[in-house]
Sequence to fold (150 residues):
Amino acid sequence: MRHSSPMRFPKVRLVVSALLLAVWLGYLLFLVVGSRDPIVLSRPQLAEAELCVLATIDEAGQARATQILWPEHDSRDASALTLDLRTPIAEIKYYRGPGVYLLPLTRDDGAYVVTPIPNLPGNAPIGQRLIYPASPETSAQLRRIKRGED
Fold:
C-alpha cells in the first residue's frame, strides 16, 4: 500500500499559484514598458497647421525640412522652407535629441513656425508647441487623421 503525504497536493497548488502570479506580473510589466510615454498627435494642432513636414533637427536645435507630408500635393521644395522653432528646443514637448521629427507648421512673418496648441477646452497648455518623433506609429496616426478616421 502506498502512503502519500497529505501535504503533497497543497504544495503543488502553491507552486502552480506562484508560477501563475509570476507570469501575470511579467505580463503587467510588459504592458507598462510597452506603453510608457506614448506619442499622441494633437488633432487641434494639426487642424490649425498649414502644412506638416518631416524635418531633421541637429544638435544646435536647428530644423531643416526634408519632406512635405501634408498637404499631399504641395509642389514646394521642402528644403527651401525657412523654419523657425520660436521656442528653445529643450522646452518643446516630445523633443528627444537630434533626429527626424514631424512638425506641424504655420506661416508667420515669412517663416514657418511650429503651430501652437489652440485654445480649446481640455487641450495641453495654450500656446505649447509640440513636435513628434518620426516613427511608424506617428506616421500611421497622421494618415488616420488625414483620412478622418478615429
Residues 8-34 form the longest helix (27 residues). The beta strands are 51-57, 63-70, 83-84, 99-108, 111-114, 132-133. The mean pLDDT is 81.
